[in-house]
What we know:
Helix content: 40-55%
Distance between the termini: 43 Å
Number of strands: 13
Shape: globular
Structural class: alpha/beta
Largest sheet: 7 strands, mixed
Strand content: 5-15%
Low-confidence stretches: 1-31
Oligomer: single chain
Order of helices and strands: HEEHEHEHHEEHHEHEEHHEHEEHHHHEHH
Mean pLDDT: 92
Radius of gyration: 22 Å
Amino acid sequence: MSRHLLGVAIATALTVTLTGCGSGSSGSGSGSDEALEIWIRQTPDSDSAKTAQRLAEAFTKAAGVPTNVVALFDDFETKLQQQAAQRKLPDIVINDTAQIGNMHTQGWLTEVDRASLAGGDKLSDLAWKAATAADGKTWAAPFSAQAFAIIARKDWREKLGMDVPRTWADLAALAKAFTEKDPDGNGENDTSGFVIPAGTKRGYASWYASSFIYANGGDFLRTTGSGTFAAMTSDPRTVEAVRFLQDQFCTAKTVNPGAVSNDTTVTHEVFEKGQGGLYLTGPYVLARFVESIGSDRIEVFPVPKGPSGGPGTLGEGENVYLMAGSGNPEGQKKFAEFAISAEGQRIGMNKDNNGAIVRLPVNSEVDLAAERKDPRWKVFQDAYPDAVYAPPVPNWAPIRQTSADSINSAWADCGMDVQAEMGTLTTELTRELQGQKAS
């Protein structure tokens, strides 16, 4: 089956393809006259997928290279595995920064020469760090960055006469008030403080906990040398963060019911339905919540520093990955250069509208305040310098998943000793690092 027909088959079966400007798809063995196939991890009918389409169309107009955008969300990595097994990877993948180790170790990526990439000197060093793998080489072009903050129900807080939290104790007190003092005024006991995606799917429990861990000076791993790491989940600061959250689940009972089984898709809806008032998350849902809840009802504030550390928050984003085996390496490079350019970044930001695929711009020539008038974006931007990205281990995915399984257990089992569980996790992560030859 030709590369183009395979792409059509996948699109028909999964109803995921967005038709691009071109009519073909490139890849292993194909020529540069065929469309550059671009995969992005988004639901196909989403505003974000539409933004990706506009980015591709603008690139085609500027560079004359036809494109075909494929938006996939569920089982994205599985579909890539299937394409890799057939030696028919897409030309470009826009995917999480945390996936760089997994993709690189499987031989899917083409190395990026930072010095020869037009516009590369305009990108932040922190963003370039997230495009660097364990071998110290650059295997992607940075595209989007994000730090995390707390989106909260401002109307609830003001109704209860409480201040914006400055400490974890303040945050816990506000969560307790949201849970017990009927902040929505409906006379029912139907609200919670925290809404948390605490399930294990895609490592969400670890993903959520990480901002609290970093805000307390803890971590999952520490660097021990060039390309080597040691597990540190038994560090008192990491234990303290996980225990603080266990207390919210088990003692204060300020977390939305069912959180230990939820992913972000469900948790977004929990927040939108007014079932909870504090959601630690990324900026990508701000425009959505402004539209669905009301701009005057929500606010954004930083994750408070923990009692033993801080400031800190999870740092994430997306890279443009130039996939191995493409028949159009020149087109791949041109797309990466356009995506990181000021024009490409502005298109991806989508101003204040829903559907941003560039959350915080990585290009220093782009002024966030000039593109977005909502001042709440600045809270995320101000948190970014202290953001902590996943370390450049060969494969972060199993480390995040193993951590999520352990942390989820500590939150689901109120009788569990957090310190003991984090010690067990340290042993498991040490074994994983040894298996990756990264210890």
